[in-house]
Amino acid sequence: MKITVLVENNTSNPNCEAKHGLSLHIETTHHSILFDFGPDGSTLLKNADVLGVDLSNVDTAFLSHGHMDHGGGLNTFLEGNTNSMIYARPDAFSSHIIKVFEKDYAVGVEPSLTNHPQIVLTKSSQIIDEELQVFSSPCGNVLKPMFNNTLYAEKNGVMVEDDFSHEQSLLITEGETTVLVGGCAHGGIVNLLNRAEKLLGRPVDYVVSGFHLYDPPTKKTEPESRIDELAGELSKHSTGYFTCHCTGETAFNRLHSLLGEQIGTLSTGDVIEL
User: What is the pLDDT of residue 137?
Assistant: First the structure.
């Protein structure tokens, strides 16, 4: 399994553009997968070209959740790829906002895309084929990100605190290896990992996901005590972790000091083989 980071907050490749967001290209035995689309189409297209990824050959795509830093490039992807199905949660195209210093800012994905013929709305747990399975949040209450409390979603015409039912994670199994792929893990990375292992009936080999421990509008990181607690929970698993995007540098450095080589970080342009 080969994972190429097309869009992430930082870049290890000077020819690529870093943007706050996430997009991963994943090659498996049977699939060319795009997981998330970054904040805009131009960054997605530019970096894919630099990194030699032909987006027109993608056969399966996933939207992790309904925030623009993950779905802003979706429409551009659809313009260049008329064959791939895009799997998303039913609420992913509802209105979403973030409250910053008592002001509301829209952070949602283009709502009209919910009716696009290539969009497939997923169930709370759904097996797509022998390699791919998705499941949604919420699925537990262990160490959910504290910065979730600034995020709201429209339910029945009313903006309410987001329960992240529009978030989904992807399980990819290739041979003996299973990888859990997430966007921001708003549902809490420990909860997502526990849910994945319950579905599989065995440990997850690797996790690739943001952990949402950093809040860009306020430039705040979760308290060190919570990060230490998270490291303790993650260390209970034999899983290898690759984190990115909304984890933040301070939180990653603390996690790495506690977990060592069990955790690594990813930037735009990075390629890993699992």
Answer: 82
151 contacts 198 by C-beta, under 8 angstroms: no
Query: Domain segments of the chain: what residues?
Result: 2-273
Neighbouring residues of 115: CB distance < 8 A, sequence distance ≥ 6 = none
* CATH node for 2-273: 3.60.15.10
The pLDDT value given to residue 138: 83
The kind and range of the H/E element at 251 are helix 249-259
134-168 pLDDT, tens digit each: 999 888 999 999 999 999 999 999 999 999 999 99
Distance CA 40, CA 21 (A): 9
Model confidence pLDDT, tens digit, residues 99-116: 998 899 999 999 999 999
Tokens of 182: 């997430």
Give this prediction's pTM: 0.97
For 49, phi then psi, to 5°, come to -65, -45
List of residues 6+ apart from 201 with CB closer than 8 A? none
pLDDT in tens, 219-236: 999 999 999 999 999 999
Q: How far is Cα 246 from Cα 243, in angstroms, rounded to an integer?
A: 9
Whole-number Cα distances in Å, 180 to 35, 133, 168, 220:
12, 10, 11, 27
H or E stretch at 23: strand 23-27
